[in-house]
Design goal:
about 375 residues; alpha/beta; 2 domains; 7 helices; 13 strands
């Protein structure tokens, strides 16, 4: 656990690493870059006035994992405003996320090719004209029977890779122009409520995490924000091979990384043995005894769940082995990996809740 003074120092150091022309989610620096951008199709524009906001990889410090926030259509907060996507950039020993924003001009977004008009520099998907947004149908998926303010301009894309970060090893080598720097200083606003809703919905879905979907999220894009069921768009393929580092996680100042087994284990039997919780020490003997009983009960319950899921996985493995079908075997393994990941995360959350419950009241130190 870091003290407030150390966090303050780290915060100051992080600020020094960030370009003055950008905004960033300060407070955590990730030690490795996000997966490549997945390949997916754009859902049809739901109506006049909606602007496309591309999908991106966000970071969840609670799970030390990237998760995919699907691209979606958003109503512009003001007439004449365009969306500058956020991006990951290398900054002084780690990757920092620079927030996107709405403004009258497109700013710098790392040279990242998000597709659908955001090909690394500016925006080719449409333009404002006399208070009305006109869509470039050569780039955006627009139903012209419902939306008539369209034009058709072909765009030649020079950056065809799927790299999702700027700078660092293997990153996009791009720097902001003077016009893009000016756009960052001009009047603009941050993500609107609908975009926050989209991010929260993605964060709460375990299937969106990179360690589960391996760079190919099941929900890559949605017609409207927050709608993760029904008419959603799944990724056609991952943008590149994704292998999480053995000790994936945040640099000092963020959460500690979890063991690799929490993300790479395919079966419950491959997980390390669960550790028995340490005896509670709140300073109240009666309360400690009660908490210890609750700890033991939770431990027994989790062990029972592990055995049950493990036995079921073993049966399914034996069954698919007799079929001699490679595709079916791969599907079963993927499902087992997801089950194992979800069970591990569920148990970690339960343990964290138990630890918080046993924490001494603020200002009270446990007795030794």
């Amino acid at each position: 656990m870091y003290t407030r003074s150390i966090r303050t120092l780290l915060f100051a150091l992080a600020v020094l690493c960030i370009s003055a022309t950008s905004f960033a989610q300060i407070g955590i620096t990730v030690s490795f870059g996000p997966p490549a951008l997945p390949v997916y199709e754009q859902p049809v524009c739901p109506g006049d006035g909606y602007l496309w906001t591309p999908g991106y990889w966000a970071w969840d410090a609670d799970y030390d994992d990237y998760y995919w926030v699907p691209g979606t259509w958003i109503m512009a907060p003001e007439v004449g405003f365009l969306w500058t996507p956020g991006y990951w950039g290398w900054g002084g020993g780690g990757f920092v996320f620079y927030d996107g924003y709405w403004g009258p001009q497109i700013g710098f977004y790392g040279g990242i090719n998000y597709g659908f008009g955001y090909f690394g520099n500016g925006f080719e998907g449409g333009r404002w004209d006399n208070g009305h947004f006109f869509y470039n149908r050569a780039v955006l998926n627009v139903n012209v029977t419902e939306i008539h303010n369209v034009y058709n301009t072909r765009v030649v894309v020079e950056n065809n890779n799927h790299v999702a970060y700027n700078g660092g090893e293997g990153g996009i080598n791009a720097r902001p122009t003077s016009e893009q720097e000016a756009a960052a200083h001009a009047r603009h606003i941050g993500p609107v409520a609908a975009q926050t809703q989209q991010m929260q919905a993605a964060r709460s879905n375990p299937q969106q995490r990179a360690s589960v979907n391996m760079g190919k999220p099941p929900v890559a894009a949605t017609p409207r924000p927050g709608e993760f069921k029904g008419n959603v768009v799944a990724a056609k393929e991952a943008g590149g091979k994704y292998t999480p580092p053995p000790n994936r996680g945040a640099n000092p100042g963020g959460n500690a990384a979890r063991p690799e087994s929490a993300s790479t284990a395919t079966h419950v039997r491959e997980l390390p043995p669960a550790e028995r919780p340490a005896p509670p020490n709140t300073g109240n003997a009666k309360q400690d005894k009660k908490y210890q009983q609750q700890q033991e009960k939770l431990y027994a319950q989790q062990e029972k769940e592990r055995q049950k899921v493990g036995q079921q996985q073993e049966k399914e493995d034996q069954k698919v082995a007799k079929q001699n079908n490679a595709a079916a075997k791969q599907q079963v393994e993927q499902r087992h990996q997801q089950q194992t990941q979800q069970l591990q995360q569920k148990h970690q959350q339960q343990q964290q809740q138990m630890q918080q419950k046993m924490a001494p009241p603020s200002g009270q130190q446990p007795k030794h």
